[in-house]
Design a protein that fits this description.
Shape: globular
Structural class: mainly alpha
Helix content: 55-70%
Distance between the termini: 22 Å
Largest sheet: 4 strands, mixed
Strand order of the largest sheet: 1-2-4-3
Number of helices: 26
Number of strands: 6
């Protein structure tokens, strides 16, 4: 089953799909150019010069069209959501539907170990639908229709959001956004022909008839582009949608939630159609449900009944018809169902002891990357509730995000903190420094270790809304704070690096939208540096034990390569150079690296909460997000 694939296998599959997209695009362009040349030859004869000019002009039109469309999407997910008519969800909204949406998305973000995406609602769309857009998790946006908010209960909304998060994690978003640009170029001839026909049809000047004929020919050839475009979307999208359904069930372990959402799409009158956007077909491959009504070989999604039966094998068409009759008389209400089922009640359970240990194995950890296990969603809800309303409100406030995140980076040692204070004061001023201390010595003083990463992830959406110059200053400050001296803890260093990675990606998302291709042997020195530092931190007073932990990690990673154990004199600077190399590894090499880090950290037979959080943070820097509370 597709859902049995782990994160690294899904990343590799997404990379293959991206390569297939390039090939299909090339074939479509060749087909269109051939059609243009045939049309030109029919008019002027087989003149090589004319045919070459026609082919070059067609190639330029398609290429420039694709480049233009991709440029309009350079800001990533929020640009797509806004172009589709999305309205941002305020952090302090009092709308019950929007508050429920925000809480659900925050919990799924914590469960998946990625930053909270920006949220949008398509207010004028009564159909049940949603999409995720962006080049990377750091610039992701999730949009849902008002119909989804009105009709879906919490479990169903959770299933839809988890489905969209799987697109974020599997690498589908960057594929989808590139597909928008590619298809725009393919359809350029049809668009030009339609515009010329609209203008030229009114003209009575000499030559107008020839212009009209040329426009008609362009539209006919453009139909070839439309055919190829729809085939490309259908071929790539259908399999990714089934995989996302399977991944969403793994997120929530509640197939009835996702199945319930699909049943409502099939059963309510509005379905999943987008009626307010004439350009809905352009993003049809990105939607949770079919938004434009394409069928057969052009369908971007598997049939609804097939998707439901994959989750509930016993469901049949007779039961679907029964639901349609029921909802025709009384349309479903999500909030009313929440109250009836008790889904609006929040239970707060105690967190694991901060000095406790966790039972983990390397394959278990690599299997959990971007793939939460049975209880991870429930644990995420527990962490979300454990943060409390006050901290969650702080994380959502635009003016509090920077002080809050800097407060998480302050070292406990007085000497180091004094130097960190000087760096913050010099760059951001005395007022910000005072607020950083107020937070560090107040609500963050007794913060459970498991809550630090979730809190940072919740603060990210408002942080990236700051003007670029302010973000650059913030990044400089973070860099100065974590490099004050070698006494900064490895967790604080890695948390600072994770912030830098996410902010830089949000500033220039297209630059970082790539799949790694580097082989493990080509990154052996960087991997050895990381393992040596991790082993040294885990055994600060026992060099022999640190060496054994390092060697165990290297045995897992590169068993036939003998690199001696040596901790770098300036380990933080050495890690700065190692991250870009390790992040460029191909998916399966990253899987081995995650397992090797787990071996090194847990070589003494136990992993405590602090070590687990360090592991999660390192994996976050390497774009291998882990769920909270790592245990079987």
């Amino acid at each position: 089953m597709a859902g049995a694939m782990n994160f690294f296998e899904r990343q590799a599959a997404a990379r293959r799909a991206s390569n297939r997209l390039v090939l299909l695009f090339a074939l479509a362009v060749i087909g269109i150019i051939a059609a243009v040349c045939v049309a030109a030859a029919a008019v002027v004869g087989p003149d090589p010069g004319v045919l070459a000019a026609a082919a070059l002009a067609t190639l330029l039109v398609i290429g420039l069209g694709s480049l233009f469309r991709i440029t309009t999407l350079r800001d990533g997910g929020s640009a797509v959501a806004q172009q589709m008519g999305g309205t941002p969800v305020p952090a302090d909204t009092t709308d019950l539907d929007l508050r429920r949406l925000r809480n659900v998305v925050e919990e799924v973000a914590i469960a998946s170990g990625v930053p909270m995406p920006q949220l949008f609602v398509l207010e004028k769309e009564a159909g049940i639908n949603a999409f995720a857009a962006g080049y990377a998790p750091a610039d992701a946006a999730v949009a849902v229709t008002r119909g989804a908010l009105d009709r879906l209960n919490r479990d169903e909304l959770q299933g839809v959001v988890a489905h969209e998060f799987s697109h974020v994690l599997n690498g589908d978003m960057r594929l989808n956004i590139r597909l928008v640009g590619v298809l725009f170029g393919i359809l350029m001839l049809s668009t030009i022909g339609r515009k010329v026909l609209q203008l030229g049809g009114r003209s009575r000047e000499r030559g107008a008839a020839a212009v009209v004929v040329a426009a008609l020919v362009a539209m006919v050839i453009g139909a070839i582009g439309l055919f190829f475009g729809r085939m490309i979307k259908a071929g790539i999208s259908r399999s990714r949608e089934m995989l996302a359904d399977a991944s969403a069930v793994q997120f929530t372990r509640q197939p009835q939630g996702l199945a319930g959402a699909l049943k409502k799409i099939a059963g309510v009158q509005e379905g999943s159609r987008l009626n307010e956007r004439a350009d809905a077909e352009e993003v049809s491959h990105m939607l949770f449900g079919d938004g434009v009504g394409l069928r057969g070989m052009f369908a971007t999604h598997p049939p609804l009944l097939q998707r439901i039966q994959a989750l509930e094998p016993g469901f049949d068409d007779a039961r679907l018809q029964q639901l349609r009759r029921q909802w025709l008389d009384v349309p479903p209400s999500g909030l009313a169902e929440d109250r009836l089922l008790g889904l609006d009640q929040v239970s707060v359970e105690p967190l694991p002891a901060s000095d406790g240990t966790l039972q983990v194995t390397p394959p278990m950890v690599s299997g959990q990357v971007a793939n939460p296990a049975t209880d991870d969603y429930r644990r995420a809800g527990r962490l979300h509730a454990g943060l409390g309303p006050a901290l969650r409100a702080l994380a959502r406030e635009r003016d509090q995000a920077m002080p809050l995140l800097l407060a998480l980076l302050l070292d406990a040692a007085a000497g180091t903190r004094s130097r960190q204070d000087s760096e913050i004061r010099a760059r951001l001023g005395e007022d910000v420094l005072a607020r950083v201390h107020e937070l560090a010595d107040g609500p963050l003083r007794e913060l459970h270790p498991l809550l630090r990463l979730p809190l940072a992830e919740l603060a990210f959406p408002v942080l990236r809304l700051r003007p670029r110059p302010e973000l650059e200053t913030f990044l400089d400050t973070v860099d100065a704070v974590i490099h004050t001296d070698a006494e900064v803890s490895l967790f604080e260093y890695c948390l600072g690096m994770l912030l830098q990675v996410q902010v830089r990606e949000s500033l220039d998302p297209r630059r970082f939208a790539r799949f790694g291709r580097r082989r493990l042997r080509d990154a052996s020195d960087a991997a050895a540096t990381l393992l040596a530092v991790v082993a040294d931190v885990g055994h600060p007073h026992d060099a022999a034990a640190a060496r054994r932990a390092y060697l165990a990690g290297m045995q897992r990673l590169l068993p036939d390569l003998h690199l001696p154990y040596a901790t770098p004199a300036e380990r933080l600077r050495a890690l700065d150079q190692a991250w870009p190399v390790l992040d460029a590894l191909d998916p399966f090499a990253k899987q081995l690296l995650v397992e090797a880090i787990t071996v090194a950290i847990g070589h003494d037979g136990r992993i405590n909460v602090a070590e687990a959080e360090l592991l999660r943070t390192i994996c976050g820097v390497l774009h291998c997000p882990l769920p909270p509370v790592l245990e079987s």
